[in-house]
Amino acid sequence: MTDRPLRILITGAGSGIGAGIAADLAKAGHTILATDLDGSAAEATAAAITAAGGTASAHALDVTNDTDVDRLVSELDGNVDVLVNNAGLQHVARLEDFPMEKWDQLVQVMLTGTARLTRALLPGMRERGFGRIVNIGSIHSLVASPFKSAYVAAKHGLTGFSKVLALETADTDITINTVCPTYVKTPLVEKQIADQAKTHGISEDRVVEEIMLKPMPKGVFISFEELAGICAFLVGPAARNITGQCIVVDGGWTVQ
């Protein structure tokens, strides 16, 4: 249990949700280890944080590669208080048109990659007697949408993974939770809008109105600030007994 500044490693921090969470947590005084498959994107995030008066470093990281993960953990000497598993990607297609190499890639990044990096950092957390793991899931950790079989399978898998790890780490001050938001206006979602429009044969405006926001009674996109605030709560002292949970940020989607 701690309220001190933390060393927070965020995957997929080069853009979108990862960059947004990194910027907000840095404002709270935490040290950010920004990682991304695209090292230059991670550097841009770290530079923006530093320019704003925060503390951050950038690290290229491929979460699907054992050697790359081991290298980074060794460079950091396992000294990470908080892991935010955020790296992700999307592909929209009917299963019969879904290239299996792309299906494998999505699961490798969002599920197996999460397990790989978590596994590598857990020994250090155990040694220090403290750790917080936050998985960035999705509304698709709870419900399904057509044409997203790999993404939905991976995000559902995160919830089961978190529950198991919550039990395995119950003997020490480590927690693991999954934040499950609906759509956040990121480059990934912008691409989804175009892909969904093509797949459904409708306009991009109709995708936003009829597919993305219609199931949400609140009817608005989720903001980076909301997700960063939830992460800040989950890594803070008040949440030390919250573990293995899904924190659902869905504008009322799943209460209907």
Automatic annotation (TrEMBL):
Record field: transmembrane: none
Keyword Repeat: no
Catalytic class of the enzyme: oxidoreductase
Keyword Oxidoreductase: yes
One example of a Gene Ontology biological process annotation: monocarboxylic acid metabolic process
Enzyme nomenclature, EC number: 1.1.1.30
Alphabetized GO MF terms: 3-hydroxybutyrate dehydrogenase activity
Top-level taxon of origin: Bacteria
InterPro entries in the cross-refs: 3-OHbutyrate_DH (IPR011294), NAD(P)-bd_dom_sf (IPR036291), Sc_DH/Rdtase_CS (IPR020904), SDR (IPR050259), SDR_fam (IPR002347)
Keywords: Oxidoreductase
Family to which the UniProt record says this protein belongs: Belongs to the short-chain dehydrogenases/reductases (SDR) family.
Cross-referenced NCBIfam families: PHB_DH, PRK12429.1
Protein's name in the database: 3-hydroxybutyrate dehydrogenase
Organism: Wenzhouxiangella sediminis
